[in-house]
Design goal:
Chains A, B, C: It is a multi-pass membrane protein. The structure is a homotrimer. With about 350 residues, chain A is mostly helical. Chain A has one domain (about 1-350): A middle domain of Talin 1 (Up-down Bundle). The first copy, chain A, contains 14 helices and two strands; from the N terminus they run αααααβααααααααβα.
Amino acid sequence: MKQKLFYVILIASFALSAVAHYSHMSKTLQFVLCCIAVVFAAGFMGKATESVAHYAGERIGGFLNATFGNAAELIIAIFLVKDGLYDMVKASITGSIIGNMLLVLGLSVLLGGLKFKVQKFNVMLAGYNASLMLLAVVALFIPALFAKSFTTKETDTLSLIVAVILIVAYALWLLFSMITHKEELADVAAVQAEEAHAHEINWSKGKSVLFLVIATVMVAFISEWLVGTLEEFTHKFGLSELFVGAFLIAIIGNAAEHSAAVFLALKNKIGAAVEIAIGSSLQIALFVAPVLVLVSYFMGNTMNIVFTVYELAAIGVSAVIAKSISQDGSTSWYEGVLLLVVYVILGIAFYLV
Amino acid sequence: MKQKLFYVILIASFALSAVAHYSHMSKTLQFVLCCIAVVFAAGFMGKATESVAHYAGERIGGFLNATFGNAAELIIAIFLVKDGLYDMVKASITGSIIGNMLLVLGLSVLLGGLKFKVQKFNVMLAGYNASLMLLAVVALFIPALFAKSFTTKETDTLSLIVAVILIVAYALWLLFSMITHKEELADVAAVQAEEAHAHEINWSKGKSVLFLVIATVMVAFISEWLVGTLEEFTHKFGLSELFVGAFLIAIIGNAAEHSAAVFLALKNKIGAAVEIAIGSSLQIALFVAPVLVLVSYFMGNTMNIVFTVYELAAIGVSAVIAKSISQDGSTSWYEGVLLLVVYVILGIAFYLV
Amino acid sequence: MKQKLFYVILIASFALSAVAHYSHMSKTLQFVLCCIAVVFAAGFMGKATESVAHYAGERIGGFLNATFGNAAELIIAIFLVKDGLYDMVKASITGSIIGNMLLVLGLSVLLGGLKFKVQKFNVMLAGYNASLMLLAVVALFIPALFAKSFTTKETDTLSLIVAVILIVAYALWLLFSMITHKEELADVAAVQAEEAHAHEINWSKGKSVLFLVIATVMVAFISEWLVGTLEEFTHKFGLSELFVGAFLIAIIGNAAEHSAAVFLALKNKIGAAVEIAIGSSLQIALFVAPVLVLVSYFMGNTMNIVFTVYELAAIGVSAVIAKSISQDGSTSWYEGVLLLVVYVILGIAFYLV
């Protein structure tokens, strides 16, 4: 029943977005419809990914889940790159990172903490997550710092090298966390188990692959329409690109993670919720962002990896506060409040800027 | 006997300050007398607060202790705000934060550590304290960073919003630490128990309230006289406002905490000493500073929450080093040395600037 | 046999360097020969120090080991100071600090981790190391920040005061870690035991002292020759002083630590490896750098302690990532990867700048 409703909204919102786009309706209406459509299409893609992962076996499946987890954001961002909207790409990367670390994690910890006094998770995983977050912050901070003394070409060179290094580091992390040290980092396994259990797989192998292709195509179309509305929408409401990218786009692109993490926290599976929130942040910083740099290079106009000082501050601040809260391997409602307070302060600052 | 001497000095120093002020004696003499008087008046206010808290019952009492703990600094600062000395207000806020985290904590840890090889305290509380300190650093850092792109009005708006958010976050922290998770954070309770035991309450209910009112009025008068001497005193000795606010005013305003924390450390109650030192820093950053912003707004001329880069660096550095030292829940004499070394380096830098 | 070969190369490389220097051969050849010679002479000095330390008794021996550990770097740096090459001195200090924290530690953790799944070491020592690293970062950061508002004289004054404070803090650390809290910080003892066992002492007391004097003289000569080649070598290959100082000089000067730490890690003595890597970084920052400031003062032209923003960023970033990785008291191969990734990113940025 609930399943059925999901598909009805998925198809309806997609169709309405298409109509709105091709009949050149008001950009604001297009924006709203595309936002709804992309949330559902991302959810559909999530299901299809899991189903394909199920048939692909544990290891490749884990890899698929990990890399397709942020596929919607990646696709939206590729269309932004294609249109040369580099500032908005970077803003949306920033927004995804801080949205996951502060908003998704904060809501999960707060709501989980209101139901359970203290929630515990794997300390060792928390430590690794924190170190990887620091790597991400460092990898974004160093190019931004040195760029001041660099020519454009040097900046591009450094950006490309850093991008390749980060992708290699992320690949080694998958090797480490899913193969060589899987048992030690139990919560990663817990997430996968959770995901496998949460959704009964009832599609055949062929159907799963077909649905994944369809979902990807749908997300791609909606993303293109959505990106087309942004400029006018932004101007109309007097919003900065920074705010739209970092808050609106990021919240829409991560809607699936938001609900998944909160539901897990409410089932006292805070470890899985933390892994989704932090894991997703890490994936954006260490995989999605570098891939976008490489994509832009192959499109002929390199997008460097130099973020603005505001974006770097937001990412750095989020990493430090998320690290401080997660490092003891236990959470309570007040820690959720702290994360959300930082998110609100950043949101207001980005809105006013 | 010792009690009697206290009251004699309290009254004598207050009277002498008044005479010096109204007969326009040398500003340097006035400054010295007011400094002595305010230390004793703050001590008197502390006793009266505890007595009132005793009669008010555990919860409201805890709240009273927490909010009146820095009442002397708050009153001095309000008189500085009234005179528009915003730079000195911010310097004294900075000085109170770093003075508590470095000087008070450092002396307690060093002297306690010379007597006891290793002193232990509640790790969970240390973790929360560290996260709250980071919130404070973030909340001061973000407005300072964004202010460069802001108009004065936008800066004021952000300052007021951040101030309200911090007061709410602090109120929720009191709710969390004193009500919902009181047992988990045992050292907070330990401080209160300690305070209740340390001083025998021998005033009636009415007397307690009366004494609290008298003490507050005394502190208010001395603060006004003290503030009046600052400008001339500062010029005469060639000191910067930054140094006077951040070191002289802050040490005087926190004299009561200094002695209390050190005595607790020497009794091997390092947990209570840490709670006084760090708790007081947090209260200044998350409650006193925002209240001063709101007070200035209602006085008609908003003091923004933008601190200088020197002040931010001092607060950030102190938070990071205090976090690093407190996070394992145990201390030894060398950690006290580290805290004091950082305090001395900051002191020299502020003196030279 | 192996011993014999060592002495043959030691003497041969020293002799060839001397010939190359005094017959004015190509600077590039001189540079290469001096690099080889200094690695072996530093190794010889290490052996002689241990032998002298053995006869000096445990306490003075520990102190000798600790202070002579970076004697080669100190001597090279003194010759750089003599020639007024302050920028290269600071670059080589930076390089030694980050080389030890990232390259030496990273290689040890990676190679040790490939052999042993998880390696553990003393958590308490890790905590103290982290706090001392933060002190070092703070002590370099504060003068750099305040220097903008300072006259040259004020900067020199602050530099000298900070240098003296750091040397005192380092002396107290030796007192703490080797005398008052030796048992608690077991890994320091482990390093010493390891060092004592690793090399059989077969020199007499007189011979040991004589060899230490000879080794020191050799290092001094080679250092002077090496420094003489740097300018031309740097220009010829279009390298920046920053890159040569921070990467080439630092790797050469620390070659002994590199091999010692990696061998210990491969024997599952990761605690001793960490102590060598981090301990050496701390010694450079808290002892060698301040001593160089004082040396320059007595030579009549004070070298201030103000590092460039790139150097500070590199040191800060290294300290934060090393802290994050070491604070749980256990390591695995991926943490080695993280450290090396940060080293490579910094290396590329310094090369391009």
